[in-house]
UniProtKB/TrEMBL annotation:
The lineage of its organism: Bacteria, Bacillati, Actinomycetota, Actinomycetes, Mycobacteriales. Residues 10-320 form the Enoyl reductase (ER) domain. It comes from Corynebacterium hylobatis. CDD domains: MDR1 (cd08267). It comes from the Bacteria. This is NAD(P)-dependent alcohol dehydrogenase.
Length: 323
């Protein structure tokens, strides 16, 4: 089978090569890949940044040469003990080395794919939309809530604003002016430019909830925008922190800042959940959630996709479409 691999850290090391097809172990499902989502987690794993990540992935070179996490496709084979899926079922979820024609995933990390969107596009959901769902839940967003979403045009942000709107919130979205028209289509109340409208961000508050998907605001500044009893959830920080910790530095300090002033600060690390994947399917099938797919690229352009993601040029998600 064809698969993207890398032997050293760095996007330039990615190569499309012939690899042996993986075999599903007990409890695993082999998926013939239709689409593979391109997310920030993959960028971190490929580049080895921030450096703290290498404690788990290999200090000098990656232990796992495969690339990719998000997947959608059809069931090719099942391992011993798998009961939820049969051959040719349409599925989506989180797997291993998904930038390939075939990939394996734990049965519990998959769900039936939504029928109302192209199968390849379902690969935009398993990490980004699931993280957004868990962030909205952690922020306790409900009907009538005033919500601020920072990084609203990104993979997590475009899903977060839709889920918050579906729960009845009034959403103020912050992103670049160039991406504002696409974000406005998602049902937000207003879109503010992240560079030049700080006073407008403050004036539209205070907020019952903030979801920060990739900003560089200090945690203390986030609490200053919250109403009393409000919650801010930090799920990223690509422009913040140091080479060692990256955006994790904000997430480490957030619980301490959140102890002050009856305003809650939460550092979210999303966890794959079949129940949450199924909830996402319900939102998609009801028309309340749609993945915003900026481009669909062939597998051979995986490196280009990661560079595009890092450049900030992408609105929503990139999907590698595997024919």
């Amino acid at each position: 089978m064809q698969a993207i691999v890398h032997s050293t850290y760095g996007i330039s090391s990615l190569a499309l090569t012939d690899q042996p097809a993986p075999l599903p172990r007990p409890g695993e499902v082999l998926v013939r890949v239709a689409g593979a989502g391109v997310d920030r987690g993959v960028w971190h794993l490929v580049t080895g940044r921030p450096l703290l990540m290498r404690l788990g992935t290999g200090l000098f070179q990656p232990r796992n040469t495969g690339v990719g996490i998000e997947v959608s496709g059809t069931v090719e084979a099942v391992g011993e003990g798998v009961t939820r899926f049969r051959l040719d079922d349409r599925v989506f979820g989180v797997g291993r080395s998904t930038f390939a024609e075939l990939a394996v995933a734990q049965e519990g990390n998959l769900a039936p794919a939504p029928e109302s969107i192209p199968l390849a596009d379902a690969a935009a959901l398993p990490v980004s939309a699931l993280t957004a769902l868990q962030a909205v839940r952690a922020a306790e967003i409900g009907d009538g809530a005033q919500v601020l979403v920072l990084g609203a045009s990104g993979g997590v942000g475009t899903h977060a604003v839709q889920i918050a709107v579906a729960r009845g919130a009034e959403v103020t979205a912050v992103c670049s002016t160039r991406k504002a028209p696409r974000v406005l289509e998602l049902g937000v109340t207003r879109v503010l430019d992240y560079l030049g409208e700080e006073s407008a961000v403050v004036a539209a508050g205070p907020y019952d909830a903030i979801i920060d998907t990739g900003g560089n605001r200090p945690a203390s500044q986030l609490t200053g925008l919250l109403a009393r009893g409000g919650s801010a959830v930090i799920v990223g920080g690509e422009q913040a922190g140091t080479a060692l910790l990256g955006g994790f530095s904000r997430q480490l300090i957030a619980p301490l800042v959140g102890l002050v002033g009856r305003r809650r600060l939460v550092s979210l690390v999303s966890v794959t959940s079949a129940a949450d994947l199924i909830e996402l399917v319900g939102l998609v099938e009801s028309g309340q959630l749609r993945p915003v797919v900026d481009q669909r690229l062939p597998l051979a352009r995986a490196g280009e996709a990661l560079n595009l993601l890092a450049s900030g040029a992408v609105t929503g998600k990139l999907v590698l479409q595997v024919d």
